[in-house]
Amino acid sequence: MDIFLGGFYLLTVVCVLLYLATRAAIPAVGDAAFSVFQRTYLVVYLLAMAGDWLQGPHVYALYESYGMTTDQIDVLFVAGFGSSMVVGTLVGSFADRYGRRTNCVLYGVLYGAACITKHFGNFWILMIGRLLGGTATSILYSAFESWLVCEHNKRGFDSSLLGNVFSLGVLGNSVVAILAGLVAQKFADTFGFVAPFDVSMAVLLTMVLVIVMTWTENHGDKSSSLTHSFSSAIKVLREDNKVMCLGLIQSLFEGAMYCFVLEWTPSLSIINKPKVGVPGAVEEEHTDIPHGHIFAAFMVSLMIGSSIFKLLSKYTSVESFMRIVLFVAALSLMTPIVYKGNQLVIFMGFLVFETCVGIFWPSMGTMRGKYVAEETRATTMNIFRIPLNLIVVVILLQHLDRDTIFKFCALFLMLALACQQWLYTLYEQLSHSCLQVV
């Protein structure tokens, strides 16, 4: 048994035990109306994520099968991030004015259309698909959460329950990612690389139908124009340091995370072996790795992180424990630099990072629900993604060596830690002010 499969089995046991411990420590929600609401949201959200996960594993392979060069593939990926950065921000304003439910339906339509373009081996048609997909991704990471938070508040549920929804979302998303990877591989092996995109299109259509039948509409500021929504969100960022901190933390952490996604495969593919004829010396050797086992281990680590979030939230504030999470994340991404070629240590470091990601997602969702204004929520969340996409585009275009990329990742996370400390200070000041008023 290789270390990757062994790690997956061990993590699965830890995940199950931690999940059971979490359920025992945290009482179940007794509000039947909230349980129905939570289930209604999670069904749609997980279908939306499944539509995304089904496409991911075979995008590069599909482009290669059409005879695209490495440079052409790089341009297509950059176009996707670029459209998410530019067009996606405008789509966020659209959600606040015309409705988050409508925007989520638009996600399904745009991503479904992107799937259709995968049937053509023409570079420019594939480019259109990347532009549509990049725009859809911005909706995925803003409109769904905006709908959830607004609807949660509108129905008068306890604000402390919101973190539970985000945590279950991370847990379910990890399971969906593993299942989607297996389904995508089965269809690709049987029908070719384009088949997973057809399955994704069917899932997205199902999601749209469920939204239409089960979700009500909610808005930000319906009276403001798209330009006004954007300028209002910028004004909030300038005037509210808490929102500014959140934006910086999200951009820096996710920038490091996307760089990690691009670099984990080559980092784990290099091992040190004794150099022939030179006692005590080692040389690098490239080796094949079981991507499926590693990906599954990463997803289980995410699930562990979501359970840890629940436990931490019971005893301390998100603003406080996220400082430790960001510090640990920074250290974990230093392992490919400090222990280059040591496959086991690097793998362990990456598992720790994925656990931090599992804590990060529900933590950020909780803090955004607390600090981001309802009127421009989707617009603000998409503005948060501008620096993230810019970071990824620059790194893709610069062709930096792996050590340099991981050094930047660690730097981004340490800067995020500084912003989190700033946010914690503001949170403490706000808490003391509230106590004095009482």
From TrEMBL:
The keyword DNA-binding does not apply. Keywords: Membrane, Transmembrane, Transmembrane helix. PANTHER family: MOLYBDATE-ANION TRANSPORTER (PTHR23516:SF23), SAM (S-ADENOSYL METHIONINE) TRANSPORTER (PTHR23516). Pfam families: MFS_5 (PF05631). The chain crosses the membrane at residues 6-30, 42-63, 75-95, 104-125, 161-184, 190-215, 294-313, 320-338, 344-361, 382-399, 405-427. This is Major facilitator superfamily (MFS) profile domain-containing protein. The keyword Transmembrane applies. Gene3D superfamilies: MFS general substrate transporter like domains. InterPro entries: MFS_trans_sf, MOT2/MFSD5. GO terms for molecular function: molybdate ion transmembrane transporter activity. It comes from the Eukaryota. GO terms for cellular component: membrane.
